[in-house]
Amino acid sequence: MPEPRAAAGSESDVGDVGVTVADVLAAQSRLRRYLPVTPLHHAERFGVMLKLENLQRTGSYKVRGALNALLAGRERGDARPVICASAGNHAQGVAWAAYRLGVPAITVMPHGAPDNKIAGVAHWGATVRQHGDSYDEAFAFARDLAQLHGYRFLSAFDDPDVIAGQGTVGIEIAPYAPDVVIVPIGGGGLASGVALALKSQGVRVVGAQVEGVDSMARAIKGDVREIAPVPTLADGVKVKVPGFITRRLCANLLDDVVIVREAELRETLVRLALEENLIAEGAGALALAAGRRVAGRRKCAVVSGGNIDATVLARLLSEVRPRPPRKPRRRVPEPAAPPSARNETTVLPFSSVTKTQPRATPKQTASRRAAVEAIEESAW
Question: Is 360 left (phi over 0), alpha (psi -120 to 50) or beta?
Answer without folding.
Answer: beta
